[in-house]
Design a protein that fits this description.
By secondary structure, the protein is of the alpha/beta class. Helices cover 39% and strands 20% of the residues. It folds into four domains: 3-213, 3-Layer(aba) Sandwich (Rossmann fold); 295-472, Rossmann fold (3-Layer(aba) Sandwich); 519-596, ATP-grasp fold, A domain (Dna Ligase, domain 1, 2-Layer Sandwich), CATH 3.30.1490; 602-713, D-amino Acid Aminotransferase, Chain A, domain 1.
């Protein structure tokens, strides 16, 4: 495909050469006034078309009575008029050749009722007119490299961080933070509003292509099309870093009380897992957004997670070590040669184990930091150096004469970092007062922070991005299964009867896709029960009710365990049926399922759901009845690669149990990985599967055994 042809159409109006302001005004309280001021004061070099039928001139610019009266088509229309006028104006814009429009007004879907209908009419009008729309209910946009400032926001400088934020106040907070920082600047900002037309995935694609953007940053309250964003992220993150702060948690993907997987899907934790799977750096606190974006913009990535801490104070070195460990990073094991070289230039009392404490060696000679950093950067066991303490403030703390030495040190340190091609991140107590040495480092592309925690957040983001790029550049190993016609028949039957799969049917579908299951017997009559008792002889079995109307069998008293012999089986069957009919008097009972009792192992859950926001999602976690209580689970979007499956297992806190504790053998993780990959492939092959639970799965050293299987179905929606 031709690269120009595949380029996002958003470039035509997010970097506009002409702008029509519909509802331009001479009233300083109106957005139509402020937008013009932002363009004029910002030095916008394109054509500005104020539109107001009552004023021939606004702010010294010729005004036009309507869109149709413009001498040429505008690339972008800013609509500052009431909501009810928007559909008609979009049609006018389309007739005049305008490509994109920003709709500031509220009063659409966010208010419900008539607003929903008006939003639908607006979208229909936009599509009819061939106009892409930002909003409605948006704070607007700016493109500082084009000198487009439709927010009339003051004191924002052009830079390389692109921002899409669902909150106008968050944008203002970030702009003020950047102003205090003094170095951070922005490329493009967009407030997506209701995302009636253009969504987060579209904006990400634009920012990934924008030559002025080095980092794409998002503040997101909720996705409308999460799968589109994941698809865009998978491509964008190969090119540049993407940072997301996701606020709150969504109930959109939940089907509560239907299945464990459905109840846990749609959560904040699931969203974070899926974003990280696709290379997005997710930050957990709002004050991390810009610092992490800045650090990623400067350094892009690091090849690993082994950090060397260089400090002039034991207390802060300890704090840094704690945060490094909590972030999932590692303290690098320094080579003997590195420790010897450090020992040759530092005081004897210096600590040469990582973290390195110079123990006063630099008090009179801060230039030693350059040598120490260079030595550490040369160690093959070190991926990044974290300088912690007072650097930049020696001239303030001890003697002003040390300032020039620090300044020289900063220049030499930057040269060393560039030569060694490894990263350096700096935390300094004196960062808030911006001494020359720290400004020199920052201007050389070295991140400088006034918080250990923010610095470590950046180190983690750099490491995560490096690891992602390493695996993204290798071909993903996936499992592709052939569609089973027998499974198709079972799904079609269940859908035609308006029910989910019965457990025996679910087991048959799983077996069709190569998933090993223990033997089972679906018993309908007393004769079947007697035959089963003879076959199982002295082996203890489990008995479970089979009913389309009873989803949670244990809650209904529909499960009996450790049954041996004909009498035990007969009594258990009678008790189960009686209990289930008391629980659900109208329930249709369709026999019982007998399976041998599972042998000892580790209980895990494997599930999948078709999330309405993100599409098919697979889950792995601690199994049994406590899965929803502890929520020790991991999610990935299907299709899974082998790496995804491995990472899911490693992510859960209980994964150590799988490695064997207290004398127990390690479980067969490869069997679990294979099971995850087969479930992922099933979700791709069968859009009828809305939710699937295998809980528990007993993981053992010789494989894994499914104890309970549940598949909830729904007729797939036609596109």
């Amino acid at each position: 495909m031709d690269q120009a042809a595949s380029r996002s159409e958003l470039h035509a109006f997010l970097a506009p050469n002409s702008i029509a302001v519909i509802g331009a005004s001479n009233d300083p309280t109106k957005r139509g006034y402020k937008a013009l001021v932002g363009l004029i004061d910002g030095g916008y070099e394109g054509q500005i078309y104020p539109i107001n039928p009552k004023s021939p001139e606004i702010l010294g610019l010729r005004a036009y009575p309507s869109v149709q009266s413009l001498p040429a088509a505008a690339d972008l229309a800013l609509i500052c008029t009431p909501a009810s006028s928007v559909p008609g104006l979009l049609r006018e814009c389309g007739r005049n050749g305008t490509r994109g429009a920003i709709i500031l007004a509220s009063g659409f879907g966010e208010i419900g009722g008539e607003g929903v209908a008006l939003e639908a009419e607006t979208l229909a009008a936009a599509r009819e007119a061939g106009v892409r729309i930002i909003g409605p209910n948006t704070s607007g946009m700016f493109n500082l490299h084009k000198k487009v400032n439709l927010l009339a926001l003051q004191n924002v400088r052009p830079g390389d961080i692109g921002i899409v934020s669902q909150s106008g106040n968050m944008l203002l907070a970030l702009a003020l933070e950047a102003q205090r920082n003094g170095y951070i600047g922005f490329s493009t900002y967009v407030g997506p509003g209701n995302q009636t037309d253009i969504g987060f995935g579209d904006y990400l694609r634009y920012l990934s292509e924008d030559e002025h953007t080095r980092v794409a940053t998002f503040y997101i309250e909720g996705f409308k099309d999460g799968r589109a964003f994941l698809d865009a992220a998978r491509e964008a993150t190969r090119v540049k870093p993407v940072v997301v702060y996701k606020s709150g948690s969504t109930q959109a993907g939940q089907k509560s009380a239907s299945s464990h997987t459905g109840a846990l899907a749609g959560s904040y934790a699931m969203t974070v897992d899926l974003l990280r799977q696709n290379g997005v750096n997710v930050v957990g606190h709002s004050d991390e957004i810009l610092p992490v974006a800045e650090g990623l913009g400067l350094l892009q990535q690091t090849p690993g997670k082994r950090i060397a801490i260089l400090s002039d104070g034991g207390g802060q070195a300890t704090i840094a070590s704690d945060r490094i460990s909590e972030a999932g990073l590692e303290l690098a094991e320094l080579s003997d040669q590195t420790r010897a070289r450090l020992g040759s230039i530092l005081f004897p009392q210096a600590s040469l184990a990582n973290p390195i404490d110079v123990a006063g060696s630099t008090d009179a000679n801060p230039g030693l930091f350059t040598e120490c950093v260079d030595i550490l950067l040369q160690d093959d066991q070190v991926d990044m150096v974290f300088l912690v303490g007072m650097f930049g403030g020696y001239g303030v703390r001890f003697d002003q004469s040390l300032e020039s030495a620090e300044n020289r040190c900063a220049v030499e340190m930057a040269q060393s970092v560039a030569a060694r091609r490894k990263g350096l991140v700096v935390y300094s107590l004196y960062a808030p007062i911006r001494p020359v040495a720290l400004m020199t480092l920052r201007e050389a592309g070295i991140p400088v922070y006034d918080s250990i925690e923010l610095a470590v957040s950046t180190l983690r983001a750099l490491s995560e991005r490096g690891a992602y790029l390493q695996r993204a550049n290798s071909a993903p190993q996936r499992l592709s299964l052939q569609r089973s016609s027998d499974a198709d028949t079972l799904f079609a039957r269940a859908l035609s009867e308006g029910r989910d799969l019965l457990e025996p049917e679910a087991r048959q579908v799983l077996a069709d896709y190569g998933i090993p299951l223990p033997e089972s017997r679906w018993v309908h009559t007393a004769e079947d029960l007697f035959a089963a008792a003879a076959d199982y002889a002295d082996r203890p079995v489990a008995m479970k009710i089979v009913s389309r109307d009873i989803l949670h069998k244990s809650d209904a008293g529909g499960v009996r365990l450790n049954l041996v012999g004909e009498t035990a089986l007969s009594d258990a069957r009678d008790a189960i049926e009686k209990s289930c009919l008391q629980y659900a008097p109208e329930a249709r009972l369709e026999g019982v399922l007998l399976t041998p009792m599972a042998t000892k192992g580790v209980e895990v859950i494997i599930g999948a759901s078709r999330d309405p926001v993100f599409g098919p999602v697979v889950m792995f976690g601690l199994g049994g009845i406590f899965v929803e209580l502890f929520k020790d689970v991991a999610f990935r979007a299907a299709p899974l690669s082998r790496y995804d499956a491995e990472a899911m297992i490693a992510q859960v806190k209980a994964s150590r149990i799988l490695d064997g504790i207290r004398g127990e053998p390690a479980v067969d993780k490869q069997a679990l990985i294979d099971l995850l990959l087969r479930i992922s492939s099933m979700m791709e092959l069968h859009p009828e599967i809305e939710s699937l639970d295998l809980n528990p799965v007993i993981a053992r050293a010789d494989g894994c055994e499914l104890v309970d299987a549940r598949i909830i179905v729904k007729a797939p929606e036609l596109n």
